[in-house]
Amino acid sequence: MPSVMGLLEERERAARQRVEALQAELQEAEAAWERFVVARQTVAEVLAEPAAGEKAPLA
Known about the structure:
The chain is mainly alpha-helical and 59 residues long. Helix content is 76%, strand content 0%. Keywords: Coiled coil.
């Protein structure tokens, strides 16, 4: 029969592995989110620029 300490250590290892996997997944999701933010900002800047040959709107 396994000891209580052994069972706790096993569960602790499993929990640590899960945390590490979730942290890696979170990093990937944050990187994707940042790419979308940059893409959205770039599109907004491009759309705000006057088209070639057009005059910029007067403020």
